[in-house]
Each structure stands twice: as C-alpha cells, then as structure tokens.
Write a structure and sequence with these properties.
The chain has helices at residues 15-23, 49-53, 62-68, 79-93, 115-119, 125-143, 155-164, 174-179, 190-198, 204-208, 212-219, 224-231, 260-281, 313-324, 360-374, 401-412, and strands spanning 7-11, 32-36, 43-47, 73-76, 100-104, 107-111, 148-152, 168-170, 247-257, 284-294, 299-310, 333-343, 381-384, 393-396, 419-420, 423-424, 429-443, 446-452, 456-470, 478-487, 493-502, 509-516. It is an alpha+beta fold. The protein has 5 domains: 7-169, Reverse transcriptase/Diguanylate cyclase domain (Alpha-Beta Plaits); 174-231; 247-343, DNA polymerase, Y-family, little finger domain (Dna Ligase, domain 1); 381-412, no CATH class; 430-516, no CATH class. 32% of the residues lie in helices and 30% in strands. The protein contains 16 helices and 22 strands.
C-alpha cells in the first residue's frame, strides 16, 4: 500500500512531432518527421516510430532522411503549435490535481494528494494502474495526445517510472525498482557515466553495493546524488503552475457547425474538464455563461442559473441541452466559450415538516422547457410589485431566493383574514382576470346600477371613492377611484368597482375588478 503522499510524472514522447501532427490532422502516414528550418535542408528534430524502423533518426539532414525512406513526410516545427499543445496539456493536468509543476514542455509532475479522497480509498498498484490507464485514455480521446505515466512516492522515482512505462508504471517496491535503474535514466553526466561503466557498473544497484565513502572519494561529489536517489532522501518541492481563473474554456471548431450533436459533444468535453477542476478546488457551479461565435461575425450569449449548485457534468449539460433544443441561429457556429460561475458548496438544515424539491435541477429543466414553449416572460411565480396600483405584479423565477423569502413570509401569516402587526386588512378579494368592463349609472355621484357581461344589478349600498394614484413623476402616471358595492338581485354579492381616471385603460372606463369572499357568487359561470 502507498502512503498518503504520492506523485505522478506525465511524459509526452515526441512532443514536437505530436504538436505538428495536431496542426495537420489529415496526415495519416506512419513515416513522419518534424524538421527545423527548410523542409529540404533542415535538420530532423523528432521522427515517428515507423520512420525509425526505416533507419531515420533525429539529427539527420532532411535529404539524407528522404534517401533512407522515400515515403517520409516532413512537417515544419512550429513554436505556436507547441505553445498550443502546452496550453492543452495544462488544461488537462489541472483536471487531475491543483498542484502541478511543468518541468519541461514534454514533462509534467503532478502531486496526487486529494485524488484518493475524491475517487476512492484503494491505493494499491491495481488501483493506480487503473487510474493511470483511464487518465491516458482521456488524454488520447479528448486531446489526441499519446503519453506515458509513472506513479511513485517521490517525484524522482515517478520520473524514472514514467521513462520505463508501457504506458503506465506504478512503483510500489521502491528499493527493488531503484536497484535496477540504469545511470542513463538518472540524468548522470556523460563523464561520470563513462567512469562508472569503466568500473563495470551498469545499474544503481551495482553502485550501492560499494562502500559509499570510498566511492565518493574516487568519483567526486556529483555521485552523492545517486545515493540520495537510492535512499529517497531529497526534499521535493514542486513549483506550482498558476491555473487560469475564472473557470473558463474556449474551443474553435475545425469546420462551421450547423447541428446540435457536435455542439453537445464539444460542450460535454469542456464540462468534463471544468467539473474535474471544480472537484479538486472544492467548488460547485452556481451559474453558466455560454457564448457562441457565428460564421457571419456575430455572437450569441446566454447565462444559465443552476437551481441547486452542482459539479456533475450530466446535470450541467442537461441545462444547456434543454435550451439548445429550440434554438436557431442565423449562421453556422465557429467557436464556443463556456465559463462557470463557481461558489462554495452550502448545506441547509431543513425544518421538521419542510418539503424541499426532490430534484431542483430537474425542476429548473422543466421550467426551461415551458419557457421555450410559451415564452420567456410567461413562466414564473407572480409577485406583487411595489406599488398601490391594482393587480400589478411581475413573474419571478420560482427558484430565486426572493420567491422563497416571499413564500415563507406568506406561510407565517395565520388566519383566514390577512393581517399586518395585528391590524385587519379586510376580506380576501377574488379578482376577475381580466377585469370585467362595465356600464355604471351614477346617482348623486354614487354608483346606482352596474351592468356587465357577468354580473348586473342595482347597488344596494356602496363605500367610496377610495382614490389612488402613482407614477406621477414618470411618463405614465395613473389615477383611479375604487368603490366597494353591494349588488342586489340575482347577482347579490359584494364587489369592487374601479374607475380609471388616467392610466392604461381609457379615461372614464369602469371595471368590475373582483368579488369578495363574503359575497354570494352569481349563478352564471365566471370565465377566469
């Protein structure tokens, strides 16, 4: 079993060649080399395994290499391509651990503390081998990069294991592994290496069998590093890379995209990396910002709120997918940018009889589908506006904290009659929506008879007018007079009338706004 502190070394063999091949994905030849300078007079920097089998090696002149392998394809080395591959590798390794050191373009050292707590408790060779194979598979499928991985208790041993990996090497018995290491694998200088070979020594185990003090007197202080490697006594401090903040990824499509399937495939890959990063940083997504660039130079941007902050790829992808199902663009898509608004996970202690949503994110998905069907401004919870104007409200997001706060305040009120600090506010009014247009006959400036499509009858008793006004400081002021009237006849009941002096309705228009609960409902069925 491993200790709690362990490292992984990720080596990308033929880094410059792989960077050049990623820029030329159509090139499928097995005889490939990357050349510096002119394609005919330049020097080969790296060659593929197939080219090596034909006798081509790094350091050859291009013409000499072509003479040995006529099918050899030469690719020019590109610093920009290598920089792009380096950024892609950084984005990948930061999904494995927040503690990463870049030792070279083709070598990354990864501190794996925290991986166990996030992925399991088994820390044997089988577990780490399986984890390493899955990591390399993701790198190969998502980024198109071949690599090797070594895992050990110290960075130096992990590096040696990565050089020997096929493609994963896990070091559990450190002493036995150290003894079989060759000096060339340890970065020993050429002069010291030749001297050791002259002594008949080829592995580190051969050197460890000699008396240390006597060997150091003859080999010099440089050889003391070999004993430090063997005894695992060197202090290892990684120079950590600074990851990109905020959590954001950008992708440029190779060809303009017109269908949903490739968009979802790309977004799923992006979410996998961002969610892995959030798990390591102990964060969850409270919101998503998605931006598409269009072929005609335009752009589309949309912000999504996550009802229950999560770091699960499937949950976040479902939120975006629901929106994309009914979306149509004027032109093809050329790129995508996905940004996550992260927050710390929160826990909430529920009341004894409180019934929370079973799946808030699925509830949010249902709301998104409803908005796509009926319109963005037609789904929500009605919340009274901060005005005295009758029946004015806004539709608030059902998942917002404001709605939860308003709902809890309503639940705290008790009794059949609304109250505020113990003061009675009156009978509940059941509003007609829309309000009923009416003809009102006045007598001595008081309503005497009401006639509408639903309720009609003489006014037995009335109270009013109750004058209300507002927005006088704005361009749309309003002024109304309200009456509470008791109607007789077949429509006997207590109703509210409203005379719009100025406002939305035509001036002088009478409306029957509603019927109080204490009233007797008319026999004619009301249309709400």
């Amino acid at each position: 079993m491993f200790a709690n502190k362990h490292y992984a070394a990720l080596i990308v063999p033929r880094f410059r060649l792989q960077a050049a091949l990623l820029e030329a994905p159509a090139e499928k030849s097995q005889f490939v080399a990357v050349v510096e300078g002119s394609s005919t007079r330049g020097v080969l920097l790296e060659v593929s395994a197939g080219a090596e089998a034909q006798g081509v090696s790094a350091g050859m002149v291009a013409t000499q290499a072509m003479a040995r392998c006529a099918q050899l394809v030469l690719l020019l080395a590109s610093e920009m391509a290598e920089a792009r591959l380096g950024r892609r590798l950084l984005q990948f390794v930061e999904t494995l651990s927040p503690r990463v050191e870049k030792q070279a373009n083709d070598l990354w050292m990864i501190d794996l503390r925290g991986v166990i707590a996030d992925m399991g408790v088994r820390v044997g060779v089988e577990y780490w081998t399986e984890w390493g194979e899955e990591t390399l598979r993701r790198l190969r499928v998502n980024e198109g990069v071949e690599a090797k991985l070594g895992i050990a208790l110290r960075p130096g041993l992990a590096l040696c294991a990565a050089r020997r990996a096929q493609p994963v090497r896990v070091v559990e018995a450190a002493e036995a592994f150290v003894e079989e290491l060759r000096f060339e694998e340890l970065g020993v200088s050429g002069l010291l290496c030749r001297q050791l070979h002259d002594w008949g020594l080829s592995t580190l185990g051969d050197l460890l069998r000699l008396p240390r003090q006597a060997a150091l007197e003859r080999l010099g202080p440089e050889a003391s590093v070999l004993w430090e490697i063997a005894r695992d006594s060197r202090e290892s401090v990684l120079r950590l890379e600074t990851f990109s903040e905020p959590l954001e990824l950008a992708v440029d499509f190779e060809h303009p995209v017109e269908t949903v399937a490739p968009i979802l495939f790309t977004l799923n890959r992006m979410l996998e990396q961002l969610c892995s990063r959030m798990r390591l940083l102990q964060r969850v997504a409270a919101g998503l910002l998605l931006r598409f660039t269009l072929d005609n130079g335009g752009a589309y941007e949309r912000r999504f709120t996550v009802p229950a902050p999560s770091r699960e790829e499937a949950v976040l992808l479902r939120i975006i997918e629901t929106h994309l199902e009914t979306l149509q663009f004027e032109a093809s898509l050329t790129g995508a940018i996905l940004k996550i608004e992260a927050t710390t996970p929160s826990s909430q202690q529920l009341a004894l009889f409180e019934n929370p949503l079973r799946d808030p994110n699925r509830f949010g998905e249902t709301l998104a589908r409803l908005r796509a069907l009926v319109g963005e401004d037609r789904v929500g919870v009605p919340v009274a506006s901060n005005t005295y104007r009758s029946d004015v409200f806004v539709l608030a997001d059902p998942t917002s904290e404001f709605v939860a706060r308003e709902t809890s305040s309503v639940e705290e009120s008790s009794g059949g009659v609304s109250s505020l600090n113990g003061v009675l506010l009156g009978l509940p009014l059941r509003r007609f929506r829309p309000a009923l247009a009416a003809q009102v006959q006045l007598k001595a400036h008081q309503p005497a008879y009401v006639e509408s499509s639903v309720v009609s009858g003489p006014v037995v008793e009335s109270r009013g007018p109750f004058r209300l006004s507002g927005d006088w400081w704005d361009s749309h002021p309003w002024h109304s007079e309200q009456w509470d009237v008791l109607l007789g006849g077949s429509a006997r009941g207590l109703y509210r009338l409203c005379l719009n002096v100025t406002g939305v309705a035509p001036a002088g228009a009478w409306l029957v706004e509603g019927c109080y609960d204490a009233a007797v409902w008319p026999s004619k069925r009301l249309r709400r």
